[in-house]
Each structure stands twice: as structure tokens, then as C-alpha cells.
Write a structure and sequence with these properties.
With 411 residues, the chain is of the alpha/beta class. The chain has 14 helices and 12 strands. A 7-stranded mixed beta sheet has the order 9-8-7-6-10-11-12, sandwiched between helices. Strands 1-2-4-3-5 form a 5-stranded mixed beta sheet. The radius of gyration is 20 Å and the shape is globular. The protein binds nicotinamide-adenine-dinucleotide.
Length: 411
């Protein structure tokens, strides 16, 4: 199934509950703008290489469009389109004044030097600089991109438009970023996991958590939940993973990853396991925090965790979601679970525009408040309408975007 078909299926379920007209559905599902640009660079070897960059600006009914930039070999227009729509619903679920967008390039950043990545990123900005900006569309990090990439984007954008730190978020703290942005997605995944455990009447200390992906989201989720006395029993990255029934010393894992280019390979404090084994391992909470589409109809029956918290975007295919639901597995959906990143990005944008800086405590406090309120709204709606958390989250998000569209006027 195409990624955009999957997100549309989730949209349709909420639209049915909201009784949205066919015309409004068509409007909300159509992207405002999709661009595909050529990015030629000279590789360090002197070879001329040409890549394709994508940016899909899905919807701006509630504010400037917002969404990450992904560098990963599987990026294509359809995936970017699906992720852009997810951003529209996500910013609406947490009620921050943004629409949704996404961008990317089909490259494996591990195969590029830092200088080559910088050239690629700057050329991408050259190609789309008049299509994004602080009041239009604000990129941020996603898989394969980080603060360095965001700093190049800000710097290159400034060459055309002058000093504009709010044109991109997720920048390094030393370069107009804010403390707390880097950890925010994982902190949000962790804090919402605790809220869900409490709502389900489960004890938090000792909760066994398995996390797929040990990048930005996975590693910060692991740290947050470890600090909350959960047991991180399995972790993995693109190279495979490790299992430890008694729980890992997460600081040791972080130190290992830090010393080995972010990778877990070579870690000696656990038993090796594959990514497929991690998804099916015996745990209380499963957190997919890497690629999309990893929970499928083929493996959904083997998932043993009673709770799935979607750290990644679109990790669960709709037919797998139906299997999880029929098995009574509670899924906290991506558009709520990983919304901490875009929420802290909003704080960064606000501070850039005010030329002011909050302290880390204020960032964390505001983040916890916004996510906590969104969780309660979704939980209440899920309970009162007897729908899964995913449908309830989409109902909140899609409903807000539809109302803003009508209020703004269409004619
Ligand atoms: P990242 O690049 O920092 O880390 C990705 C991790 O996934 C790495 O550990 C990588 O090795 C691993 N991985 C890659 N391919 C894999 C595979 N086939 N099997 C298992 N692991 C694999 O990326 P990130 O920023 O942590 O993003 C992870 C997910 O979270 C993505 O779906 C992204 O869209 C989503 N997300 C990220 C943010 C953010 O603020 N960074 C916000 C919201 C959602």
C-alpha cells in the first residue's frame, strides 16, 4: 500500500465520524503545492552527481506550513506527500498555529562526506528558497538530518532574504536553536507513554519497553523512560539490535552510540536480536521510532506488547492497525505521540521571532503542558465516542483544520 493511501484511510475513518462532506474531504486531502527539484553537486571525487529534492506543502489553513526534511534512500514523492498530510493533522492535534509540510531527498547520508551533505543542502535551498520562509513553510530535522543541516539551511536562506533564523527550526543551540528542541520528540514520546500507562491503570516502574531506532527519537525516548524507572529491554537501529531482560543501562548505550557514529553495532551489554525479533519481543510497550510501515499485516499477529507508542511517523499500516485493534492492543498514534518535536519547534520559531530565549525548564514545562492537554482531549474523545485513540486524534486534528478552512473562507 502506498504511504499516502495509508494516511488517507486513517483520515477517512475520522472524516466519517465527523460527517465531513465529500467536497471538504477532497479539499483537505489535496496538497496546496508539491515541488520536485533537480540538485546537482560535485562529489568530493570530482564526479558530477544529480539528485531530486522534494517539498510538499500540504495545508496552511491554520498557519504557516511546518514539517521535517528527510534524507533517506526510500524517500519518494508519495512518502513525502503522506508525511506532509500527517504534519497538518499533527500540528492541529496539539493546537499550535501551523499547517503541514514535508521534504526530502532519496540519499543515504552515511554515503556522503559532511562537505558533500553541506553542498547538497545549500543547493536544495537555492532551488526552493522562494517557496519557504518564516511565514510560509518552516523545515525541521527528520530522519537523516540534524542541527548541522538546519544551520546550513538558515545560512543559505539568509543569503537571499537576510537574517531569518525563524525560517527553519531544530538548529544547534549555538546557532539560534533552543535548549530542549533536540530531546523534545523523545521526551514527548516518553511523557505520553507515562500518561497512557497511568490512564490504563498500569504501574510505571519496571514497565518493559522495546524501542526500534536509536537516533534522535529512539535515544531520547529511552533516556526519558529509563529516568522514569521503566526497563528498556530491547533497542535496535538499521544494523540490528540488542536485548537485555533486566533492562539496559541506557547511559552506557548512549555512550556507545556516541563513540561509534550513532550506531549500536559492537555493543556488548546485551544479546543480539534482529529488528523483526524486536517488534515481536516480550515487553509491555513497543516504540517503533525509525522507519514507517514496519508493523504490517504480516507481523501484527506476532506483536506481544499490549501497548504500541508510535515514535516514528506512519509505522503501522492500516490493515495491521485493524489486527492490533482486534487483539486489544492500544496504539498511541504518531500524530499525537511524536508531536513533541514540532511543538518545541514552535517554541524555537516564537523565540527567534522575539529575539529572546527561554530556559530549558520553561521549554520542558510548556511542552509537557501542551502535550498533556492534547492527550487528555484525545483520550476523552476516544472514550466518549468509543473509537480507537488514532481515530480520536484524527478527529481532533481534521476537525480543527476543517473549521479553520470554513472560518477563513473558501470563495
Ligand atoms: P534519526 O535519523 O535520528 O534516527 C533514525 C534511527 O532509525 C537510526 O537509529 C537508524 O539507524 C534507525 N533505522 C534506520 N533504518 C532502520 C531500519 N530499517 N530498521 C531499524 N532501524 C532503522 O531519525 P529520527 O529523527 O530519530 O526519526 C525517527 C522517526 O521519528 C522517523 O519516522 C521520523 O519521521 C520520526 N519523527 C522524528 C522527529 C524529530 O524531531 N526528529 C519528530 C517527529 C517524528
Amino acid at each position: 500500500m502506498r504511504a499516502s493511501d495509508a494516511t488517507q484511510m486513517y483520515f477517512d475513518r475520522a472524516a466519517d465520524q465527523l460527517d465531513l462532506s465529500a467536497d471538504m474531504r477532497r479539499l483537505l486531502l489535496t496538497a496546496k503545492r508539491e515541488v520536485q527539484v533537480q540538485i546537482p553537486i560535485e562529489r568530493d571525487s570530482g564526479e558530477l552527481a544529480t539528485f531530486i529534492g522534494y517539498r510538499v506543502q500540504h495545508n496552511d489553513a491554520r498557519g504557516p506550513m511546518k514539517g521535517g526534511l528527510r534524507y533517506h534512500p526510500q524517500v519518494d514523492l508519495d512518502e513525502v506527500r503522506a508525511l506532509a498530510a500527517l504534519m497538518t493533522w499533527k500540528t492541529a492535534v496539539v493546537d499550535i498555529p501551523y499547517g503541514g509540510a514535508k521534504g526530502g531527498m532519496a540519499i543515504d547520508p552515511a554515503g556522503f562526506s559532511q562537505r558533500e551533505l553541506e553542498r547538497l543542502t545549500r543547493r536544495f535551498v537555492d532551488a526552493i528558497h522562494d517557496l519557504f520562509g518564516p511565514d510560509v513553510d518552516i523545515p525541521a530535522p527528520d530522519m537523516g538530518t540534524n542541527g548541522d543541516v538546519m544551520a546550513w539551511i538558515m545560512n543559505q536562506y539568509g543569503k537571499y532574504h537576510g537574517f531569518s533564523p525563524a525560517c527553519v527550526t531544530g538548529k544547534p543551540v549555538e546557532y539560534h536553536g533552543i535548549p530542549g528542541r533536540e530531546e523534545a520528540t523523545g521526551r514527548g514520546v516518553g511523557s505520553l507513554t507515562l500518561k497512557l500507562l497511568s490512564r490504563l491503570g498500569r504501574r510505571i516502574p519496571g514497565t518493559r519497553v522495546a524501542i526500534q531506532g536509536f537516533g534522535n527519537v529512539g535515544s531520547h525516548t529511552a533516556k526519558f523512560l529509563h529516568d522514569a524507572e521503566c526497563r528498556i529491554v530491547a533497542v535496535s537501529d538499521a544494523g540490528g539490535g540488542f536485548h537485555r531482560a533486566e533492562g539496559f543501562d541506557v547511559l552506557e548505550l548512549l555512550r556507545h552510540a556516541h563513540a561509534h557514529g550513532g550506531r549500536l553495532a559492537g555493543f556488548t551489554g546485551g544479546d543480539p536480536l534482529t529488528n523483526a525479533e524486536l517488534l515481536a519481543c516480550d515487553c509491555d510497550v513497543l516504540v517503533p521510532a525509525a522507519l514507517g510501515g514496519v508493523i504490517t499485516a504480516a507481523n501484527a499477529a506476532s506483536i506481544r506488547a499490549p501497548i504500541v507508542v508510535e515514535g516514528a511517523n506512519a509505522p503501522t499500516e492500516p490493515d495491521a492497525d485493524a489486527i492490533l485493534e482486534s487483539r486489544g492492543i492500544v496504539v498511541l498514534p504518531d500524530i499525537l505521540a511524536n508531536a513533541g518535536g514540532v511543538t518545541a519547534s514552535w517554541f524555537e520559531w516564537v523565540q527567534n521571532r522575539q529575539h529572546y530565549q527561554w530556559g530549558i525548564n520553561r521549554v520542558r514545562q510548556e511542552l509537557d503542558r501542551i502535550l498533556g492537554e492534547a492527550f487528555e482531549q484525545v483520550w476523552q474523545l476516544s472514550t466518549s465516542r468509543r473509537v480507537p485513540l488514532r481515530t480520536a486524534a484524527y478527529m481532533v486534528g481534521v476537525g480543527r483544520v476543517a473549521r479553520a478552512t470554513v472560518l477563513g473562507g473558501i470563495a
